[in-house]
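It is worth pausing here to work through a concrete case rather than discussing structure prediction in the abstract. The textbook approach is simple: state the sequence, then state the predicted structure, then interpret. We follow exactly that order.
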Amino acid sequence: MHLENSFKHTSLTQCLEQIDHQRMFWIVKRLSGNDTGLNGAHQAGVYFPKEFFQQAFPELATTRVKNPDTKIDYCYFPNIDEKVENLRVIYYNNRFFGGTRNEFRITNWGGCKSPTNNQESTGAIFLFALKKEGDGFVSIGWVASSLAEEDLIESWLGNEVEPGEFYMPHQGVEDKREFEIPDAWFKEFPTGREIFDYIVELLPRKKWKGSIDKLLLKRREIEFSIYRRIENESVLPVIKKGFNSVDDFIRYAHSVSNRRKSRTGRSLELNLETIFRDEKLYFEAQAVTENRKRPDFLFPSSKAYQDPLFPDNCLRLVAAKTTCKDRWRQVIDEAKRIEVKHLFTLQQGISTAQLKQMYESRVHLVVPEPYLSAYPLEWRAKILTLEKLTKTIRCEQDMIKDIKRWVV
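Step two, the predicted structure:
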């Protein structure tokens, strides 16, 4: 019980310090609707990527035995002073034995007793840290319960935790050679706009055969890969060269971390902006409304919004947030003339209770079509995809005579 005792009654800050001090192997992710059981898929346990298990449990990464497994003696959650015992670590490899599954999971989280199985935890940051103790494994878990806790974990991590991504030590950079990167970018870090304009050249709308929902996700995937490659090749030499003082190192580390954080939200805005233009929609980004509010996208323009003759029901607001757990309320008062606001998010699942609050507050959700399955079945018909949203706005704008007179 040594590990449990060292974490008992610790704050999140102390917990993070202990994880570093005890050199535990950790992983950070956002809990999806699949993890918490929100979408009704009844998948067993929390999903982690293959790389995590290959490093933490290399003996399980085999296809010689069907569904190899081991156990973790317990997972202690310091913030609620609860412990889940006898977790099962399993590699479902039956694809190699005539089945279809090929994934690693940790199961036996203790049902409703565990915050990882609480549907209200969907979208929350989950920190899981592992350590050898005696002949077995023990672990620590922390599911962030507030924006302040999420901010603290992201500051400790040096990265914003995006939905569907995983963060852990000794994480390699995937080097995809399917496209070239301008040499100048390795000498001077490009802006987010420069990177995204280059991605649009690599993957233009006119050559894309699928939906715009999948186009957005594919462009984000490429953008993230390019960013990581540039960062690795430009930052690593500076680190290896060394610093003259700790203060110099801290300043440099903060600049790298801040650049990462600013990339995430800006990337999503640029992605949506490009798609709206490709779809021939009239809109204005960061237009000013009441009380100097600046919604991400206002359709068709601020000029139309400020003109009382322009019909209210043809005005649209679309906010963009990579995650919207506890952040969706920021959208409510961004434009008083627009009764229903739309919020585009990459979050993979939101609890039924929170969805009900959002829709009662007239904030309607928009998600990429592949993510719909992460949401409760009874809500999927009410949630728009990006494809459906753009078609709706286009139909509205086509019905307005002389719409260009309101376009800035």
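Step three, interpretation. The mean pLDDT is 89. The first strand starts at residue 25 and ends at 30.
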